[in-house]
Description:
With 121 residues, this protein is mostly helical. It is built from five helices and no strands.
Amino acid sequence: MNVAYWIVGGVLAVFYLYSGGTKVVQSKEKLRPMMGWIDTVPMSFVRGIGGLEVLGAFGLILPPLTGIAPVLALLAAVGLALVQVGGLALHISRREFQVIGLNIFLLVLACVAAWLATTWL
């Protein structure tokens, strides 16, 4: 189960470091082509989501790697799953059904990571 966690957690961490980092540092104009919803929410909200994604990525990797409070990996995975639930809700409310596939995939991966993280409890 440890190998499976590191594969799933690593994939999620890389994705969320990129995705969250992009939301944190890029301007609204640069984000607009990738995110059609960006004009419907305040930029501080976008930055907040990006910050949560980056923290979640670190939470997936650092606690199990260091052995310090490994329960945080479980909490990070659950938090990232909740981010995807919010993303699904946003896309469904905007009738953007063609883009929810990625949200569903990431939600499933986050749930699998949460289940696999229970090995450290």
